[in-house]
Amino acid sequence: QVQLVESGGGLVQAGGSLRLSCAASDSAFGSYAMAWFRQAPGKEREFVAAITWSGLNTDYADSVKGRFTISRENAKKMVYLQMNSLKPEDTAVYYCAADISHYYSNYITVADFNAWGQGTQVTVSS
User: Is residue 123's pLDDT more than 90?
Assistant: First the structure.
């Protein structure tokens, strides 16, 4: 089972930027899609962004398009989420996730992500 460890969360003012990182333990990391989800207090966890194994295809929630960018470095077993123009409504615990059931797929299916990190808190003040 892959272990995922997020870092980079913190407190930032509205309009600011943060970069989240996720380190994976699995030697097969470069074979499957990765994603970021978030959960705000009192709300259900929601999809934020995803990237295929090759990095060639990405997908974003409408609420973050144009502001967030997901990327990965397979050699380092890392995935990142660059968050710009942050808003108070972006405040949440952000989770890194992996789809470890589908290797070398060029498609992203949000429901397929089945391995999770512990999360990192992002707080955006107004």
Answer: yes
